[in-house]
Structure formats: structure tokens, C-alpha cells
Amino acid sequence: MKFEYWVIAKTKEKYFISAEAEFLKRIKRYTKLTYKVFNDVKGHGNDPAVIKTKEAEMILSQLDPQDYLILLDERGKQYTSVEFSEKINRFHISSYKRVIFLTGGAYGFHQSVYDQSKEMLSLSKMTFSHQMIRTFFLEQMYRAFTILNGEKYHNE
Predict the structure, then answer these.
(1) Alpha-carbon Rg of the chain, whole angstroms?
(2) Where does S-adenosyl-L-methionine bind (predicted)?
(3) CB neighbours (10 Å) of residue 54?
């Protein structure tokens, strides 16, 4: 089983790039996490419908039928850090080839992406920039592995 984290568009702020790199490095101690960045869709006059359609084409062309796709979406289910670590642990013993977490673009997801997803995960009811969500999500992945390994990173 392999974890992947897919995102739309590159991170621009240096401090977020640094934070992402740090958590990706830490996560490598526990599992291989593929971090895939899809190019930003440009040249469509900022038409949200067209942009979401083009992003969906990129995403869906990379999915296999046996993948377990989880969308990071504000309407998704929220977990405590411990509950999320238990979910990660269940994926380790599942029969899925890949578990893919996906952060969409500025306009969210096209319906075809929702249709292919198995579930949605929310990190908060608040709205954050896509760059912030990446860092928050990677930190939670790292936290999940430290919880599963009984390390002192997480306090309860």
C-alpha cells in the first residue's frame, strides 16, 4: 500500500515550501509518501467551470480504478489527530494499492472528481489557502505516524 498526496499548482511562498519539505522529510522515516504537483490551469479567462474541468481531466487521467481517492474538502468528515492516525493504520492493512489524498485548485473540484472519490476529509470548517492546507495536511500525516509509533510529538 502506498500513500500519495496530490495538489494543484506549485507552492509559491518560501516559508510554505520549507515547511512542506520538512514534513515530507519527517514522514519518510515512516512511509513512502509520493507528493505530486499538477500544473496550474492557465489561459481560460479565469472561468471556474473550465478550470475545474481541465483540472479534473489531469487528475482523472492519473487515477487507477483500484485507487482510494480522498478529497480534502471543507464539507468532508473531520477527525481528531488520534482518529486520523487510526484511519492511516487501517489503510496500511487494507487491500488498496494506493491511497491518494487530493487538495484541489482555487475553485474546488469538478463533479467528476467528486464522483470518483471514496470520501472527503476536512481539516477545518474554516477556509484556508491551498498553500496552508498542504502544510497542515502534511503535519497531520507526520503526527499520525508519531502517534502510531508511540512517539512524544503528540500530547494528550
Answers:
(1) 15
(2) 72, 104, 123-128
(3) 19
